[in-house]
Amino acid sequence: CFCQLSGKIDDCTCNIDTVDHFNNVKIFPRLRSLVVKDYFRFYKVNLKRPCPFWVDDSRCAMRFCHVESCEEDEIPVGIKGATILQRSSNGGGKEKYLRKANEDCAAHHTELDYLNKTISETDQKNMELWAAHDDALDNFCDIDENDEEAEYVDLLLNPERYTGYVARYAGPSAKRIWESIYLENCFRPKKSFNFNPYIQSGKLNELCLEERVFYRAISGLHASINIHLCANYLLSDSNGMDLVDPSGRWGPNLEEFVRRFSPETTNDEGPNWLRNLYFVYLLELRALAKAAPYLEKEEYYTGNDSEDWETQMAMKDFLNVVKQFPEPFDETTMFRNSEQAEKLKYEFKQHFRNITRIMDCVGCDKCRLWGKLQTQGLGTALKILFSGKFDDIQVGSSIDVNNKKNFQLQRSEIVSLMNAIARLSTSIYKIDDFRHMLR
Ligand code: FAD
């Protein structure tokens, strides 16, 4: 069976079998119960930003592309943020959140005052100092949590599944997005450049490690998105469209899975794309292990004390399991041993930021939502691994989370990272389902 994968995962130290077992038995069940917690289910996102690269001509016509954003009273009070809370007259349990927000603000202002002063004495050195303090420079994503047009979306009410965002219903949009990602934003083998946007896996050894990592991460994410749409396919529609099963329900579509991943229909590439899913999963898992000391101390504040306590305990338990997995991916081998390392790191970041911008060109709102969330999650993992800010926090070290200067993650980064790893984990679990069905 083509999806009965085995052996070592390329550019990693572990085997597929080990990951399958570890994920399906330990990680997947924990993530499944974690992402339904209030802290993780509400994601703030702007789905209205125009496409910055081309005229946005193809909105998905399918009703399954629609995303319902939350009414204000549906969002837990602690999540809404300081602005809304300040507007509200009754304090109560919200004081804690306000105090925290004010402290963060005060610390930020002191820092800005200092930087303003040094910048006014301008010279090149001070400019560099300013740049070093600018958090945005560490980000691999072009997503602004304070965007005024951003709205909260309940992820549980808008699940990732088949939407009909395919050429038949939405024109060439989806194809154009993937083409632009691979052709213009992935690193490509120089000697064998051609106009086929999709790199053959055999050519990957012409790329350096960092470039391969970039490609595998994107391809793994692409595989995961497509596995989800196969696993939650519209088996029938009341309008009689796409009738695979006349009883009307969502569920796995084995034929679609085989079409998308079997060697026969993908020029032998499908199994490699599945292997790339395991790769990006290990990359995000490593980021979680690295940021574990920080994430263990996060409050996961929603304003509901018992829910928050449960989330903190569940996160601790989950992170303990993550830490048991021995060094799934060694990021320290990247961006070294080369005079070009800094330049390469800069390009790596710019390419990835561009991909997060391309998400504003996705013509189906549901796909855009999950595309944005998963690229932000991957971007957060890259930030943890490569910004250098998390290098000093060793597992078990006692760190002061209130001192956010060194390792600050915004709420939306934590939410996207956890949901992104949950999506990848679910995909690996679903491959196992398809394996059973094929048998
Ligand atoms: P596509 O998946 O569009 O792929 C185009 C080409 O890329 C293929 O022909 C193949 O040569 C190559 N390719 C395919 N997989 C890989 C891989 N893993 N690695 C490298 N190369 C590959 N549809 C939904 O129904 N629900 C969703 O939630 C959803 N979310 C999306 C999110 C984003 C950001 C995008 C861009 C698209 C999303 N789509 C979603 C659409 C879906 O991914 C497909 O694009 C669509 O179903 C059309 O599929 P296709 O068979 O034309 O091949």
From TrEMBL:
It is found in: Endoplasmic reticulum membrane. GO terms for biological process: protein folding in endoplasmic reticulum. One of its GO terms (molecular function) is FAD binding. It comes from the Eukaryota. Its cofactor is FAD. It is a peripheral membrane protein. FAD binds at R161, T163, W178, S219, H222, R260. Disulfide bonds join C60-C65, C105-C141, C364-C367. Pfam families: ERO1. Belongs to the EROs family. May function both as a monomer and a homodimer. This is Ero1-like protein.
